[in-house]
Amino acid sequence: MAARITYLRNETLRTVKPDYPGNKLFGSQFANGEALYTPQFSNVFRWKFLTENPQKEEKKADTWTPDVVNCSEFLAGQDDGLVWLGHATFVLRTENTTLLFDPLLFDSAFLKRRHPLPCRPEELTNIDLLLLSHGHRDHLDEASIKLVARQNPGLQVLTSLRMTPLLRGMAAGLQVQEAGWWQQYDLGPEAPLEIYYLPAAHWHRRGLNDLNQVLWGSFLIRTQDKLIYFGGDSAYADHFEDIERQFGPIDICLLGIGAYKPAFMMQLSHTNPHEAAKAANVLRAGHLVPMHHGTFDLSDEPASEPLRTLQDVATGGMLRAELHAPQVGEVLPWTTWE
After folding, report:
1. Pairing state of beta strands 322-323 and 97-101?
2. Whole-angstrom Cα distance, residue 57 to residue 302?
3. Region of 87 on the Ramachandran plot (φ > 0 left; ψ -120 to 50 alpha; else beta)
4. Mean of the pLDDT values across residues 238-245?
5. Where are the strands (E) in the chain, listed by range?
6. For range 20-33, the mean pLDDT
7. What pLDDT is stored for residue 140 in this prediction?
8. Which residues contact 114 (CB under 8 A, 6 or more apart)?
9. What was the pLDDT predicted at 112?
10. Is the pLDDT score of 50 beyond 90?
11. DSSP letter assigned to residue 257
């Protein structure tokens, strides 16, 4: 019997895309647009036990890690800036507001950092908004959520539909605002920013029985004079065209470039460097800051390959945006970028 089709959104929030009915559900599972995506365990088995990585020796010899500089002074100050803390974790400060994206601050049994954090986790204070793109453990880390919530009691979380129970199980007092795709968060009439939750081509799972029960997505932040796009985790799909059509050219985009090999395992979850460049071009982005590479060993490509490939793409004229490849902890003066 076919799953019942329904649509879900936060009815208290503004939906900005005309005639968008909400996120499509097949029974209780969210979908990528119109299609339900179910990751296949057979692909995991094939990858781990039946496939030899053709770059095995190259990967073993590639010990590259991003350079790391301390960002404690920035975190303690009030100046505008954008700082990459590694993987998909960023701190953005603008309009006297500090935003933290997808914090992953600690090692776990399955995730070991290849480089240090550029600050002490305890220095992540005075955070106003915590933006959580989706529920995978390399983006939603329980230890990091507990620490950030404890250190920032006035924090507001902006995230996706059905995320609240998961978060309240980590930190019971969190203020959580959920949105569906194409919805604008309610930050109050005096807010200096506009923040939207937008599509991504991905999926959700943390346990055995929660496949696609929580929505995934991306974020757009509108400051007084710039649009900043945080892509979360996403495969390449037509949502990039939809976002550009809705909002026009993006000034700065933060896009993943790593964890793309083998393609049969990763191509429906992440963008490779060529796809990230294509997405930036489709978004008509002025600036591209890559992420999701160098911090953790998640896939088969050698550590330095994603950034080297993207730099080659840019050098060859196939990336129209200006490429910024920061050190971990480097403060990017994004407000000065044209």
Report:
1. unpaired
2. 9
3. left
4. 98
5. 5-8, 14-15, 23-26, 29-30, 81-86, 89-94, 97-101, 129-131, 156-160, 175-179, 183-184, 194-198, 218-222, 227-230, 252-256, 287-291, 322-323, 331-332
6. 95
7. 97
8. 65, 294, 295, 296, 297, 303
9. 94
10. no
11. -
**Average pLDDT in the 134-149 region?**
96
Closest among 256, 317, 266, 322 to 291, alpha carbons compared: 256
β-strand partners of 194: 222
- Could you tell me which of 203, 132, 141 has the C-alpha nearest to residue 170? 141
Cα(258)–Cα(243) distance, rounded to whole angstroms? 22
Helix runs in the chain, H state only: 41-45, 56-61, 72-76, 142-151, 164-168, 239-247, 263-266, 273-282, 305-315
Q: Which of helix, strand or coil describes residue 158?
A: strand
In the predicted model, is pLDDT for residue 117 greater than 90?
yes
Measured CA to CA, the distance from residue 279 to residue 284 in angstroms comes to: 8
For the chain, give the mean pLDDT.
95
pLDDT at 33: 85
* CB environment 247-283: b (16+ within 10 A), e (fewer): beebbbbbbbbbbbbbeebbebbbbbbbbbbbbbbbb
Does the pLDDT value for residue 39 go beyond 70?
yes
Task: Kindly state the tokens that stand for 170.
Answer: 């980590």
- In terms of Cβ atoms closer than 10 Å to its own Cβ (0-12, 13-18, 19+), residue 16 is middle
Residues 20 and 196: their CA atoms lie apart, in Å, by 14
Domain that holds residue 237: 5-336
Minimum mean pLDDT range among 48-52, 237-241, 262-266, 304-308: 48-52
- Count of domains forming the chain: 1
User: Helix or strand or coil: residue 289?
Assistant: strand
The per-residue pLDDT for range 186-218, each reduced to its tens digit, is 999 999 999 999 999 999 999 889 999 999 999
The reported pLDDT for the residue numbered 1 is 59
Where residue 55 sits, what CATH number does that domain have?
3.60.15.10
Tell which phi-psi region holds residue 124, choosing left (phi > 0), alpha (psi between -120 and 50) or beta.
Answer: beta
- The terminus-to-terminus CA distance of the chain in angstroms comes to 54
